[in-house]
Amino acid sequence: MSQLDTTAESEPFWEKGNLAPVHEEVTAFDLPVEGAIPPELNGLYARNGANPREGHSGHWFLGDGMLHGVSLKDGRAEWYRNRWVRTPRFNGAPRKPGMPDIRSGVANTNVMAHAGKIMALVESALPVVMNRELETIGSYDYDGKLDTPFTAHPKICPTTGELHFFGYGFQPPFLTYHAADANGTLLRSVPVPTRAPTMVHDFAMTSQHVIFMDLPVVFDMPAAQRGTMPFAWSDSYGARLGILKRGAGIESLRWVEIEPCYVFHVANAFEESDGTIVIDVAWYNELWRGGPSSKTFDKAVLRRWRIAPGAARAQEQTLDDRSIEFPRVNDDRAGMRHDIVYTVDAGDENLATSSYSSLRKYDLKTGQSTQHTFDKGMASEFVHVPGAGGKGEDDGWLIGFVYDRARGASDLMILDAQRMGAKPVARIMLPARVPQGFHGNWMPGV
Ligand SMILES: [Fe+2]
């Protein structure tokens, strides 16, 4: 079992406490469970995160990727594994000067399945295909058709099974939108030129459109030369949303102004009957003024953009002023109207400093929110898994890792999404610590 690193002041926040990396790959079978795992949950929950092999990295977002996975079968926790994503960089390939190499970088941000492939994702490189035992197969370029990086936040359309995604980089057009069909064949790539290279972590999808965020966190050469995240806040760049019709060419692109801000994560987006586009996001007032140092995260709040047909500017509304991150919805509603958003509650803190002791569920129809608190536990992102035969948006389970400080190891927790105040229906005790990490997904039947 890995021990927590020390908390010397000189260490960056991502090398302290439960953000610190683990140093061993662990395999364990038939894990102990408190409560009862819903027998309908058959599949793999996997989650990615930065876990630098050497124990150190120049920025939280730059460490080697490590997957943590738990296989559930017939009410049992069949196994837990954690494995590094063995990219060429992990295996010692030198970093080449100049532009990032999309075939060699770390893959540390998300993991998802589409068209029979489990893919570890980072926004600066191609997807890396993994097997269900979390061993690395290799980078994937869609049979030679994909020549840009691949976002860590692709969207699967629940109606068509299509995968919508984009890549961004430092050369014009800076951003390219891609779509693959349900079988994983790349259908189209559409350049979406922005005015400068900006950091584009996520995007939004509705049933009719995809929406890109061109925000004022702009390529910064001094940061690039320091080997850290090469972006910084700009007071002059402005902020826009680029709305593109799904399946159409660049001629359908329309830009809409918003207040300068930064958004890592979109909860979901949908269209109302009159064509108004609604987007819910975890919203930062600003990010990385002066560069991506460890002390420049503000808190994020749940905010809504509404874009009326033909409008030049979005209407904006902060839905709650509490600090949250990692917003998720029922993925069966992706691109369609949602009323429920599940988040990790950061208390009054921010991404770097929070103890993440609770989850918060927003019901946007009633304006109410409910909380689940983990006593002495530290929660990572939780995903919603629709219940078998469930018809309501909220029917189903919330699944995620919680670090148990008392045990010095982590649990996979399963909550009933409709009973936030109740104790977890199952607590699966892992033999190791799972660092806070970034994003994961439930992969049914995998
Ligand atoms: Fe993310």
From TrEMBL:
Its EC number is 1.13.11.-. Keywords: Dioxygenase, Iron, Metal-binding, Oxidoreductase. GO terms for molecular function: carotenoid dioxygenase activity; metal ion binding. Its cofactor is Fe(2+). Pfam families: RPE65 (PF03055). Binds 1 Fe(2+) ion per subunit. Fe cation binds at residues 153, 201, 265, 439. Belongs to the carotenoid oxygenase family. This is Dioxygenase.
